[in-house]
Amino acid sequence: MKVCTKFKVIFIATVVFIWGAGFCHAGLITDMHGREVEVPDQIHTVFGTSPPVSYMLYAIAPELVAGLNFPFREKEKQYLPARLQTLPVVGGWFGQGRKPNLETLMQVNPDVVLAWYMKNSPVSRKAEEMLIPMGFRLVYISLDKLEDYPETFRFLGRLLHREKRAAALADYAQETIDRIKAVRDAIPESDKVSVYYAEGMDGLSTECDASVHAELLSLCGGKNVHICPSRTIYGMEKVSIEQVMHYAPEVIVSYEQGFYDAIFHDPRWQNIPAVQNKRVYQIPSASLNWFDRPPSFMRLLGARWLLNKLYPEKYDVDIVDETQRFYSLFLNVSLNRKAAADIIEP
User: Residue 233 phi/psi, 5° resolution?
Assistant: First the structure.
């Protein structure tokens, strides 16, 4: 026990020394949780403690990203800068009980650690209790709702001295949210479409109506059929096929391509209105999922896609053109129409 304690003291002292040695000019900022944090005037490296945070960094300043939460999948790599693919995998606080490799984090030694502050979440407390005593500069941002994204982009722009870039992203986010809410709010409650969000290869996992993982449904005027209090932030609530039959959703949105490929041939699903009326839609997922897991800025494009699927007569958008515009702005990727169409329906 004494040896272990001695190692921890040395470990923390080493981190604090490295942190202090790299600390030149600094200033106080107020983060999005209202905490005052001293940060360098010039920030050269940043680590995000979870994928939603890291993805915000990818959009604003990929050159500042210090480490990854997990390795990229093959279909993600072609739309992200090559530099990101060579970064060390640090891990982070996300998913079910995950935590970072502190030794790798110490080696990466970011100027700032960004975290999503989740009210009353043990995840936020654990990150804070571990990182601050080790000398890391922890800055909280707000990502609870997609409506937080415009201000969060602007905050990060000020923090990272990327105001112009952040303003362009924030303006797109606000334009999207305003447009979608205007369309949604004009739809009578009686005309709103019931939706089941199918997760898992069998389609029998889903999200409660208030879950962050299903936020796009209510934002776009869909009525989530699975009404319940979320047990955990992770979600993935198990349901039975009988329960889905009882819900009788008019639309199904599918997370897994394998489930989507099978649903029209699976006899268990054939009496569900969404299947009968061919209103089952596969969520696009390149480079990152447009809907969920992890929730990210891609949901701004996903919201436009979903609103068009739910209410095509009320929101008639050229989603291929919108995809080209979005990828150019957020990912600095130029797509021709065929490439954009292939992303939407691979």
Answer: -70, -20
